[in-house]
Design a protein that fits this description.
Helix 2 packs parallel to helix 5. The protein is 39% helix and 17% strand. It contains six helices and six strands. The protein is an alpha/beta fold. The longest helix is centred in the N-terminal third of the chain and has 15 residues. The relative contact order is 0.21. The protein has a six-stranded parallel beta sheet with strand order 3-2-1-4-5-6, with helices on both faces. The protein is globular and about 35 Å long. Strand 4, helix 4 and strand 5 form a beta-alpha-beta unit.
Length: 174
């Protein structure tokens, strides 16, 4: 894990344009993890856009940062433009690129470094340059927390990040 953390640090050592995406029909773990890492990365000066393939349940719209989420469906041109300019793309809470539906082509064709963070079985290791995968983890949010901890950055976890991680862990584990 430390080799991946070192590569992660190197990639993110200077402010970059970042896209975070998650699977179609995102649940609490998908949205919570995506927004947690978005808040975290913004603390280091990165320009971050969260793009979901489609909309998600209204009961998740209270989560801090929800107002900045771009829904790919209905905003294809804008999402594709943002993705094309990305230097780093985070693939959150899915193990197969087909899970992002029509948005997959834009992500595949992007020249960005891709980082997969997921807890599902059989991750496609070919879709990302760096893969953080742990099928024993309760949720992707747990892995996001573990990455923040491994970066020795727990002190950066504020109320917004904590709430996002909590939603992810609670909704995936009950």
């Amino acid at each position: 894990m430390m080799e991946k953390i070192s590569a992660f640090k190197d990639i993110l050592s200077v402010p970059r344009n970042i896209v975070i995406t998650t699977h179609r029909g995102p649940d609490g773990d998908a949205i919570g993890s995506s927004l947690a890492i978005s808040h975290f990365l913004k603390k280091f000066g990165h320009s971050v856009n969260v793009i979901t393939p489609n909309n998600y349940a209204d009961f998740l719209h209270w989560i801090p940062g929800n107002e900045d989420v771009l829904i790919y469906e209905g905003n294809e041109d804008k999402a594709q433009s943002i993705t094309k300019a990305a230097e780093v793309i985070f693939l959150i809470d899915f193990s197969n690129i087909n899970r992002i539906s029509d948005f997959a082509e834009s992500v595949i064709n992007a020249k960005a470094v891709k980082i997969l963070i997921d807890h599902h079985q059989d991750p496609d290791m070919n879709i990302a340059d760096i893969v953080f995968s742990d099928i024993k983890a309760s949720s992707t949010a747990q892995i996001v927390y573990e990455i923040i901890d491994a970066l020795d950055c727990k002190n950066y976890i504020n109320k917004d990040i904590a709430e996002c991680l909590y939603v992810g862990i609670l909704t995936d584990t009950g």
